[in-house]
Structure formats: C-alpha cells, structure tokens
Amino acid sequence: MGKKDKNKKKGKGAEKTAMKTDKKQAARQKKMLEKLGEANIADIIQLLEAKEGKIEAISESVCPPPTPRSNFTLVCHPEKEELIMFGGELYTGTKTTVYNDLFFYNTKAVEWRQLKSPSGPTPRSGHQMVAVASNGGELWMFGGEHASPSQLQFHHYKDLWKFALKSRKWERLTAPNGPSPRSGHRMTVSKKRLFIFGGFHDNNQSYHYFNDVHIFSLESYQWLKAEIAGAIVPSPRSGCCIAASPEGKIYVWGGYSRASMKKEADRGVTHTDMFVLSQDKNAGDADNKYKWAPVKPGGYKPKPRSSVGCTVAANGKAYTFGGVMDVDEDDEDVHGQFGDDLLGLRFDLPDMEIAGDPK
Predict the structure, then answer these.
(1) pLDDT tens digits for range 331-343
(2) Are 112 and 236 in a shared domain?
(3) pTM
(4) β-sheet bridge partners, residue 115
(5) In whole angstroms, what is the distance from residue 65 CA to residue 103 CA?
(6) Which ranges in 37-89 belong to alpha helices (H)?
(7) Is residue 247 left, alpha or beta, with left meaning phi > 0 and alpha meaning psi from -120 to 50?
(8) Residues 151 and 66 in one domain
(9) pLDDT of residue 306
(10) What is the pLDDT of residues 98-111, one digit of tens each?
(11) What's the domain of life for this entry (predicted)?
C-alpha cells in the first residue's frame, strides 16, 4: 500500500516539474517578445484576417516574378497551360515574412499575373494545395502555419479552402471532423477524394508529428470517417512524398520527424521507407475502409530525404525532385545535404529509377 502511494507521488511530482518548466519557458518567451515589441500570434492572425476582409473586388494584373520564398505550393492549371503558386515564407536570418499572394504563370506567354480576391486565406507556409478539373477548375487547400517575424511564435491552421478558377473566388469550407491544426502534411486527390497524411504541430515549446489519414469527399463536401485496419502503419512524419496511382492507391515515401534521444535533447530522423494505402476489399463495405502495406521498391536506391517535390505525370509515373537530409547534427546546429536528382516511380512494379537516365 505504501509503495503504491509512493509511486503515485512520484508521478505527481514529475507532472508538477513539467508544468513548472512549461511556465518558465512561457514566461521567458513573453519577456523576449516584449523586448522585441512583437504582438501575440493570435492578435497577428486577427489583424491579417481583418486585412483580407477589407478587399472588396477581384483584381488581376501582370506582375514581376514572385519574390524569393520557400514552403509555398505550386500546381498545374487543370485546363490551361498555366502554373499556379500560393503563399510561402522568407527567412532572412533575422526576420520571417509569410505570404498569401496568388500567382498565375502562363507558360506560352512567359508571363506572371497576380490575382487578389476578397475574403481569402491569410498568409501561410507548409500548407498543401491540389487542382481538380471539376466545375471549370478548382484549387483545394488545407492547413499550413504562420510564423511570427521572430520565429518565437507559430500558428497552425486547420482550415479547408476552395478557389473557383472560373469565378476567381475563395470559399472556406466548414465541414466538421477534419484534421487537427498542422503543417508539413501531404495531400493528394484520387477518385473525387482528398487524402491528407501526416504533418506536425509545433508551438516552439513542444512538438508533435502525425501519421493519421483524413479523407474529404469532393462530392458530399464532408470529411469521411475512414477506418484504417491492421497494425502496419507508417511512423509519424512530415515533408514526405505522396502520390496517387491511376488505380487509386496512395503511396507515401520518405519524410522527416524528430525523436527524443536523451534528456532535453532530440534528433531528426529522415525516413527511407515506402507504404501504400489501398481500400480493404476484404472488409465488406470497403468504400471507407483502408489498409497500409509496406512497399520495397526495386531499381535505383535513392538517399534518404524529406521536403521532396512530387507529382504524377500523364504517363502514370510519379516524379520527385530534390529534398534534404540533416547531416552533422549536434545540440546547437544542423547542416543539411540537399539533393538535385530527378527520380521516377513506376506504380505497376513498383520500381524507382533516375528519370531521363539512358540506362
């Protein structure tokens, strides 16, 4: 009896210590923000939303190329020879700027145009966007994050947006039971459904990586209650590669996460594994029932990487380019090794290859 009570007190003591640590970190951050003269992130987001609300009319004009940035989205127009770019962020080493500008690049005219439309999304990076041909063309976007200028504060979004390419209007969807706030997730579209996988949430004091799957119907405009069977699932991660095969299977490869290694220290993990998500045909009504299976692709063996660009071409192959892997990481600094190879994945084998390699 006494031993049980003793263990219980130990547990309470650990909880109290964690709470004290969180309070100290919060107090320290508050002092730093006051010194910098930076507003609370919630107030920053509120001001940005008010700014979007003041835009009264749709405007579109020829413009210079977009300014330097990272973690934006770039998709192809479903009907025209255009590229569509939204958002992103720029970090100068001392200050972060986050964008919500929407650009169209005409590949024939070699021309950039910027479009402004009332009541659109606030600035963000690390979000995801896909384009579909329905109703004259639509853009669908989910999540992302907004970092304060000092990068001491982060706001993660859980909003779902649709942009109608015909009317040039934004619409925010408010369907319940969607994913939690996150960025660094991945999204693809297959058979009139959006598939969202993974991502992370970071408030600069603690972080969490995800490996959940969320499915949104582009027909009913509802989040579906997807059931994932089996014990085999990808480990939590962000920045992975996701692609839908012509048959409707969803492939996930690579990505990044952090894991605790010792007291008050953790390390980044760059993943090399591949998984496929498919409907569970043995589960009776299989429409919303899925299962993961590991995949061991043949062919070329690429180096570990995350933050990879990925798209599926008209020939049915998935193509990826670039990516980064942390190397020489210590408690104070991290150095990245960046890739510059173009890889192709055949879904029928599956088989990885260096795209364009005459061999």
Answers:
(1) 555 567 777 778 8
(2) no
(3) 0.85
(4) 60, 102
(5) 9
(6) 41-53
(7) alpha
(8) yes
(9) 85
(10) 999 999 999 999 99
(11) Eukaryota
Mean pLDDT over 154-166 rounds to 97
In a domain, 134, yes or no: yes
Q: Is 7 inside a domain boundary?
A: no
Q: Is residue 204 part of a domain?
A: no
Whether residue 231 is found in the same domain as residue 323: yes
DSSP string, 29-49: HHHHHHHHTPPPHHHHHHHHH
Residue at 108 is within a domain: yes
> d(Cα 92, Cα 87) in Å, to the nearest integer?
17
Domain boundary among 114, 139, 174: 174
Q: Containing domain of residue 105, as a range? A: 40-174
In this predicted structure, the answer to whether residue 242 has a pLDDT above a threshold of 60 is: yes
Tell me the C-alpha distance between 194 and 216, whole Å.
5
Indicate if 129 and 230 belong to the same structural domain: no
Q: What total of structural domains would you count in the chain?
A: 2
Amino acid at 148: S
Computed over its alpha carbons, how large is the radius of gyration of the chain?
Answer: 22
